[in-house]
Amino acid sequence: MKSLVFVALIFIVGETAFGKVRSPTDSLKQLVSSRHGDERSKLLIQLSYQYAGNNPDTALVLLEQALAGAKTPEIRGKVLFERAMLHRFLENDKRQAEALDSAYQTLKGVNDSIAANALHYKVVLLQLQGQYEKALQTGHLLIDTRKALPSRNHELNAVLQTGYTYDRMGDYRKAIVWYKKGLEIQGVTNENFIGRAYGLIGIAYDGLAEYEEAIAYNLQAVEHFKKAPNSSFLHTWYSNLGNTYTKMGKLDLAEKYTLLALEDAKEQRYIARVNLGKIYMEQGLLAESQAVLEKVTQELENTGQTNYLSQAYNRMHELYRKKGDYKTALAYFEKYKANEDKRLSEAKIKQVNELAVEYETAEKERLLAEQRAQLAEGELLVKNRNQWIFGLSFLAIGLAAIGTLLYKQEQLKSQQVQREAALKLTLNDIEHRNRLQEQRLAISRDLHDNIGSQLTFIISAIDTLKQFVGDQNTRFTERLAHMGAFAKDTIQELRDTIWAMNKDQIALEDLETRVSDFIEKANLVAGEVGLVFRTDVEGDTIIFDSRTGMWLYRILQEAVNNAIKYAEAKTIAVTFGRDAGLFLLTVEDDGKGFDVERAERGNGLENMRRRAQVLHGELELVSEKGKTVVSCRIPIKHQKDEEIA
């Protein structure tokens, strides 16, 4: 569902001609040959459109000619923007980013409308690459630029882009805050823009599993899309409604809206058709489900769309499980695995190619730097030789002065070498940090996209084995149930780890939001036990590195889970506090208490103590009848110092 919204966000700013192939005309070529300066550059841009689809190399050459002949910053900026769009069409992320940056810098203050378009596509590119912090920075610059322009419609879209970045990060609460900020903008007239704002809120609530809210906002989105003539979003949001109703188990409504989505004759809507097959499956209409899924799977196999194909194989696997044909179900599961391996391989090949290009560029720059250094050294030798000749000529009257001069020169040279060495170390450190952050983001995406899906299908496979075994072996069935529960816990642990890996730093506000979500979910599980979260932190903002934030969250989880499982408490209170240079985490319950000496031999408590010690803090446990308090104190300054180091 989100991929459909993402495509809509990419193309909302304004279309370019790339991808639309027109026949080149001799008259346009003749006009180019008879014009000069900016007029010729404009015609070359138009001519490049003719070649973009079938001969992009020629289109690039034409744009280079247009750039070389442009006289004014505005035309140069327009050429750079069109070059960025061509590289985007060719899926060359590095060149696209370079051209977008150049276009923005050239057009800023000259043509802010196209400059804003360049920022928009840079945000989209950074979102695709998983560079969310940079996407947020660029998104805020885009909002400021759009605010200074007349169109409130595009200002709304800029705000939605920032919200969508948080959505991609999995921070749905912040995404909703930004989407609602967009709806507060006065003067928006485009019904598609307004509808998409409501729809994105609905999608975020769907991600939070708050389905009633998701339905309410998606229905509002549909009403606005209906007001827009020939809206390209209407059928997409019909599909979104069908997907959410499916999750709620309201299959009649899910079928209704999915069929409405498929009334769109312009699009194949593969995912909507796959979802329709699932709906029929859940309704027990296995023959209808099989007919839909077999047709869409065949089409996807013919077109080679590996992303959608994985979802189709998944549904076919589920279908044959329900039919009791476990052999065929296993065959489709193996097809799913093979398709996922292919997708992963293609992604790795693209990464390797990009790294090879970057390496070659860096190697050329290194060789060029060496050549410059050699020239500088030669010039220095010549200069020193001349100084010696001059000094010897006036040795009788200037020996003392020359000695002083040479000494000072050597001092300056030594200082320069030291400064250059320090600068090089600083640059290497920055480059190392950037590479490390990119690797962390790449690993987190791989964990989410691959290991997460693998665990999900392990659970599915375990369910298949349980159905196959039935009641024949109770002990084996129990073991399978334990394995399934362990896999589900592992998925939750994986999601928490990805959340931490996606952040170089974790502010206290981020941790509070995460804890609030955990408390809300724990309340649903705890039943009659009341869980309360309080924060009493004043003064400067507290910022932890990702490891510290994650381990504090783990300590809190362990303490709350122990209280729920063993304490028989009526109330559990979680408190964040601050005492001078210490951050305080307290979990207190009114349960039956326990023997602390015996509990210290447990793995859970030892894990909490070990994590607190690694963070240079301490963990204290006090328990008596009717009350248990777990307190963790860590020094705030030490965490910041470690992060800088």
List the helices and strands and how they pair.
Blueprint: H1 2-11, H2 26-33, H3 37-52, H4 56-69, H5 73-89, H6 93-107, H7 112-129, H8 132-147, H9 152-168, H10 172-183, H11 191-207, H12 211-227, H13 234-248, H14 251-261, H15 270-282, H16 286-303, H17 306-323, H18 326-393, H19 395-469, H20 474-501, E1 505-507, H21 508-526, E2 530-536, E3 543-545, H22 546-566, E4 571-579, E5 582-589, H23 596-599, H24 603-614, E6 618-624, E7 627-635, H25 636-644
Parallel strand pairs: 2-4
Antiparallel strand pairs: 1-3, 4-5, 5-7, 6-7
Summarize this structure as a short list of keywords or feature phrases.
single chain; 645 residues; alpha+beta; 5-stranded mixed sheet; two-stranded antiparallel ribbon; 25 helices; disordered N terminus
Description:
- The structure is a single chain.
- With 645 residues, the protein is an alpha+beta fold.
- 76% of the residues lie in helices and 7% in strands.
- It has 25 helices and seven strands.
- The strands form two sheets. It has a five-stranded mixed beta sheet. It has a two-stranded antiparallel sheet with strand order 1-3.
- The model is unreliable at 1-23 and 640-645 (pLDDT under 50).
- The chain has helices spanning 2-11, 26-33, 37-52, 56-69, 73-89, 93-107, 112-129, 132-147, 152-168, 172-183, 191-207, 211-227, 234-248, 251-261, 270-282, 286-303, 306-323, 326-393, 395-469, 474-501, 508-526, 546-566, 596-599, 603-614, 636-644; strands at residues 505-507, 530-536, 543-545, 571-579, 582-589, 618-624, 627-635.
- The two termini are 42 Å apart.
- The protein is globular, with a radius of gyration of 31 Å.
